[in-house]
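Weekly sync notes, structure subgroup
Attendees: PM, AL, DS (notes)

Item 1: joint prediction request from the bench team. They want all two components modeled as one assembly rather than separately. Inputs as received:
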Amino acid sequence: MSDQAKDAGQSRKAPRLVLWLTLLTGLGLGVLLVFPAVFVIVCVGMAPSMIAVFVDPDRNLRALPCTVALNLAGVIPVVALLWQQGNSLNDATELLHDVFIWALMYTGVALSMFLLWVVPVIVKAILETVARHARWRLERARERMLKEWGEGIAEDAKGPARKSAAGSS
Amino acid sequence: MAEENAKQAVAATEIPGGGVLVADRYVVLPEQRLSHFDRPEAAACQVEDRQNPSSRLFALLSHPAVPIRADLLNGLIRRYCPNIVSPLCHATVAVEGGRERRLAVINEAPGGISLAQALTESDEPFSRADIASAILPPIVDALEHLQERGLSHRSIHPGNMFFTGPEQSSIVLGECYSSPPARHLPHAYEPLETAAAESSARGEDTVAADLYNLGVSILALVTGEQPGAAKDAKSLFDAKITHGSYIALVGSKRLNPAVATLLMGLLADDPKRRWGFNTLRRWCDGFFDGSKKPNAPRRAMRAYVFNGKDYFHPLLLAAAFREFPAEARSDLMTGRLEKWLRNTLSEKQSADAIVAALARLEADNAANEKVDANLIARSSLALDPLGPLRYDDLTVTISGIGSALAEALADNVRDRLASLNSLLSGNLLVEWTASVAPEQSRYLPTYICNALQSAMRERGRIGAGLERCLYLLNPGLACQSPKLRHHCVTTIPELLQAMDWAAAKGETLTALFDRHVAAFIVCRQQSLEAPVMRAGRADLSTMDGKLALLQLLSSIQQSMDIGPLHGLTTAAATALQPSIDELHSKMRRDFMTARLKQLGEDGSLRDLIDGLDLDRGVRQDGEEYVVAVKHFQWLVRQVALIDSQGELRGALAAEHGYWIATMLAFCGLGLGVIVTVARAML
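Output from the run, pasted for the record:
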């Protein structure tokens, strides 16, 4: 894709991103006013997803759903724990003093990074294997034809190409 | 005639240890020669009769290149003729250890020696009484029989007359079919009508010519000398014309008056005045007109000067025209000859013929014919209407053209072949046959003339040209193909057998089908003309040409119910193999090669063609090859496409990879929510 096309794509995505950020900021302010402790835990726990949005917007737009989903999967049990302990700012601070809570929240992000690295590699390996097999089948068919019809068929198969080349020249 | 020949031929099988069994009765022994029965162009050999061991038989082995008188031979076999050595049957037999084949004609052997041998063994020549009692009566009977059947002997001389037994009381005439008519008669024996013709082209003629031969033979017998031996052919011919045959041959010899009268009658130069059978019988009984004087040919009162020489006889002038054609042309253009014929000889018809010949010059020129040769030929015929045609270097009678052509082709004499070529192509031959008497023109009827002209019009094509004329004019002649000549092929089944043997010895199929073979087939089986021409038109180096030839041969094998031809089918398989090798498909090639080998061993040409169906195989192979080439191109394109899509597959893998990872992440999120809610509820 040319640079001009990329620029055009980015300029179309930019207003949507601003819209989402505005919505999330509004939601965050709402949560901050109603549940300040939950707001703290979510802000701390979802920090990798937010960083991912701003560090490499182009890459993260495709990877973002995966990162956000698994990050959220790690934050939700912590929010539930906070809710069980009383949902105060002290409880939130206590929880943030626990290293396992941090590990729980960021393991999801690590898992998403792993998935985003390994799954395309596996898919590419599968596609290459399928292509290699198809090529092998075609080669085998070509060899069978050479055996049945002789080497001359390869020369004759070049004929129209040669003719067209000669015609174009 | 060819069918007749085939019907009269009988089966012959070789006997282990030597000899050939003919008609399940006669054992021909080619190695046991009987040289005293040898003929100039046929060797004689011993024959044993299994049914009647006491019978005396001999066989004449004819050379395949000699045009035998097949119609005469078959006529004599079919119906007995008294006082002539009787042929019983004929068959083709192997000689010289099987290397060659000959036409063997089995004859009853005469019981005694020949009259020529008797002359040399005895000091005394034959007397009038011998002639009247022992020699003349049986010959008259024989010739009368021949005349009734429209035949003539044309080989009467003392060497070909035999006593029937040691008592020497009667004689028989020897055979007369083994060579062209009168071919080996000394020039003295020929009547004026045919004396000027070449020895190979004297022709059939009538019994009147036989009676003339008989007269010369009697002269030899009563004098004990060879008549005219002291003179060469030309001077004897001149003398016969100038003085008459009797004076020219007898000269100053003193003869018994009765014998002299007999010879005057038999040696009359005008065939109409020659003695007939009744006169001869009366002479034998002692009744004859002793006051008869020999007739001399008519002589002009005033000589015609040609080329510085005086000519009193038109026949001599005709011979001189043939000798000096350029001078003859100049002389004819002056118009003197017409006046001489009209005023001096009162030959109005001949004079008109000369005028007509001169009037034809422009037409001949327009028709691209040999103008001078035609002019000389027409003028000579005007001067000598009963004589031979003098055309270029040819001097032939109507019935002698066939044998002259056979000799010229056998010896490959280019000048004579060129002359025959233009004679058979032009209109002169038709004019000549239309102008002669019916007893001569019957030997070359209009339909044969038309067939000859048609063959010469298409002379460039195989199955036409001089070769076809050869077999049209010589119905009994064996096929003269250089590769088959020694097989003595006289019928089409024999031709296929000979081709089979030649093919088994390594001859290729296409080499065996030459101009002679094609012409032979067309002439012997008219219905095969179309397939022969089709095969002849085709290029025999191509598959279509070979298949056309095989179609022809297979139709002959099938229609004539000829047995397996292993040599020919093997040769056909060899000829077709290159076409199979050119097939594109290996599978089809292998299959057809195996099939060809199998069919090639069966010996049936029809099965070979039908079983192989090469034509269809080649067509299908071509069609399938076009499809295969397109499929191959598609395969190559597909491989190239896969090779070129490496980057695309990378991009695709990333796209799908992110999507799958996202799905897995949402699954994880869902699982996390479920676990959290479950814990909270517990």
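Discussion: The mean pLDDT of chain B is 90.
Action: AL to compare against the crosslinking data before next sync.
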